[in-house]
Design goal:
With 134 residues, the protein is of the alpha/beta class. It is built from five helices and five strands, in the order H-E-H-E-H-E-E-H-E-H.
Length: 134
């Protein structure tokens, strides 16, 4: 017999709270990233994990281009391990931000992934800029 949502037990409130707090340690969203950037209080480096070509076609203002395929120890010498990193990519159909976050964590960086990527950033009406990485 198939399990339906009504058949699924709900977690006890303390377990549910712990689960959701843990998720927030790994994920953020465009609204929170935008607010932190707009207020000038972003305690993180924002990394666009897509290709350099995709970055040039449109990216979040202030984001650093760091294609996930190029991440290695040598490339990361320009980043401080004291500053957390938030990764993003195109959106729900892209996993470049997940791959980048996994590599960064493996190399000792604190990292979160921005859910929805550039797609949800645009959906929320936030600005996008064009141009190659400087």
């Amino acid at each position: 017999m198939a399990t339906t949502p009504s058949d699924t037990q709900f977690a006890a409130p303390p377990e549910a709270r712990e689960h959701f707090i843990r998720r927030l340690a790994f994920e953020t969203d465009p609204w929170d990233v935008h607010e932190a950037l707009a207020e000038g209080r972003a305690p993180f480096v924002l990394v666009d994990a897509r290709s350099s070509e995709s970055y040039a076609r449109g990216h979040i203002p202030g984001a650093v281009s760091l294609p996930h395929r190029a991440i290695d120890r040598a490339v990361l010498t320009r980043f401080s391990r004291d500053v957390p990193i938030v990764t993003y990519c195109d959106g729900i159909g892209c996993n470049a931000s997940t791959k980048a976050a996994a590599k960064l964590a493996a190399l000792g960086f604190r990292v979160k992934e921005m859910l929805g990527g550039l797609e949800w950033w645009r959906r929320d009406g936030f600005p996008v800029e064009e141009g190659a990485a400087k």
